[in-house]
Design goal:
Chain lengths: ~220, ~230
């Protein structure tokens, strides 16, 4: 369950500064906790749950912003705008559709895109809302392509391409196909959500397929 | 039964799209392809999940930023009421207006609907009509309608040309393209797209430079290249 109960309530006055550092250096926070924390913010307007989320994500969003903008002022503007959206729109978060970190990342990406657009003062152009669907595409019949790859084929034909995979995907492919670990075992071992394990496997397989037959342009 | 889409954006285009680092015109063509392609919807979701996980897992140094001030400022703001969820569903359920060209009606992918509603008027040249989308001065994004049995004169590209088939079918020297297929032609690729005798075609066209017409009399079209741009 949520560790939030242990955190001092922030309702009455400013919390002590060390709170921030304590939660940032906490070693193990799984994405499940973030989903719960965000759900608490949505349903109960839980300020301490929000503070936990903020303390964890704000510095990471800033690092992302620094990489994208290359300057601190804009990076912080992006963090503020993103985290304000997280606070205001928490009620729109739906844990069944994806994890909290994905939701927060997409908000940051859209904020950043629209910041760049406004800087160039073009109000009617392509906006983040045009480019990225806010929500889910309707369910389609399952794409069976990926599951048709059998392990033997992978071993024989694709092995030479393993090295071309991004490290995070290669690591997971090796654990699943070479060490024959279950998706859940890999998720536990690397402390990443199960959904991310599955995503990375699909991405790696598609990348290998692309390397093999060059189907994509 | 939906036909299979054969021509997809490459993995690195999808990654840059999910990251938000493509220029707006290319991003729009990729977004519209994703709207039409369940396979790339899945890939795109996976890439986004992956990127978000990288963001959440990156180690950060403690720094001097006064986060407490920002946190207090944010929590002083009101939150959306709970009914907001249903409002959002209503907005997304709104039915798109079809666009009409050559007495034919087309429903565009979600990503193009807002821009297409503000499109410039159709310009017609023979069996070909184009309408520019108001995407800003730096970009040349248009809808391109090609009537049945019509050939676009052979041309080469001074820049990148992206063509997304939205409806119908088009063929060129390299293959046959149906709804959802995304063609990317780089500078120096030469092709002569045309429609079949029984089927017209609506495309999204993104150009980073004007077309240059190659052959004989069609070179006379070069002064008209602004028509396509």
């Amino acid at each position: 369950m949520l560790k939030l109960a242990k955190v001092a309530r922030h309702d009455r006055g400013s919390p002590p500064k060390q709170d921030t550092q304590a939660s940032m250096s906490r070693p193990e926070i799984t994405n499940n906790n973030w989903d719960e924390a965000l759900t608490f913010v949505a349903l109960q307007r839980d300020r301490s749950a929000y503070a936990e989320l903020f303390n964890y994500f704000a510095p990471r969003l800033k690092a992302f912003g620094m990489k994208m903008f290359g300057n601190e002022q804009q990076a912080l503007e992006m963090v503020q705008d993103t985290m304000l959206n997280v606070w205001k729109k928490a009620v729109l978060f739906d844990a069944s559709r994806g994890c909290a970190s994905t939701w927060i990342f997409t908000i940051a990406r859209n904020v950043r895109f629209d910041m760049l657009r406004k800087k160039q003062s073009r109000k009617d152009d392509v906006s983040a809302d045009d480019l990225w669907l806010n929500g889910e595409y309707p369910e389609q019949e399952a794409d069976t392509d990926t599951s048709q790859w059998d392990t033997q084929l992978l071993m024989d034909k694709l092995a030479p391409y393993f090295t071309s995979l991004p490290p995070a995907q290669r690591e997971i492919i090796e654990k699943v196909y070479l060490q024959e670990k279950s998706h859940q075992e890999v998720s536990d071992e690397l402390a990443i959500p199960l959904g991310t394990v599955k995503s990375r496997i699909r991405l790696a397989l598609d990348r290998l397929r692309e390397a093999l037959d060059g189907a994509r342009n | 039964m939906a036909h299979a889409i054969k021509f997809h954006p490459g993995m690195s285009l999808l990654e840059q799209h999910a990251e938000g680092t493509l220029s707006a015109d290319i991003a729009l063509a990729v977004a519209a392809h994703i709207d039409l392609c369940p396979h790339c919807q899945q890939l795109s979701r996976d890439i986004t999940t992956d990127l978000a996980c990288q963001l959440a897992q990156q180690p950060v140094k403690t720094n001097n930023t006064d986060w407490q001030q920002m946190l207090n400022d944010i929590m002083a703001q009101p939150q959306l009421p709970k009914q907001a969820t249903t409002m959002q569903q209503q907005v997304s359920a709104q039915q798109a207006e079809p666009i009409i060209v050559n007495q034919r009606e087309f429903i565009l992918p979600r990503s193009l609907q807002r821009l297409a509603a503000n499109r410039c008027k159709w310009l017609q040249l023979g069996g070909i009509a184009t309408a520019k989308l108001p995407a800003g001065n730096d970009y040349h994004i248009s809808l391109l309608y090609i009537d049945k049995n019509t050939e676009v004169p052979q041309h080469t590209h001074l820049g990148l040309e992206m063509t997304l088939v939205l409806a119908g079918k088009i063929v060129d020297e390299n293959g046959e393209y149906s709804a959802g297929d995304l063609l990317i032609n780089s500078p120096d690729d030469t092709h002569t797209p045309r429609t079949m005798a029984d089927e017209d075609c609506l495309c999204l066209s993104v150009l980073s430079a004007p077309l240059k017409f190659k052959k004989g009399l069609t070179r006379l079209l070069n002064p008209l290249q602004q028509f396509f741009y």
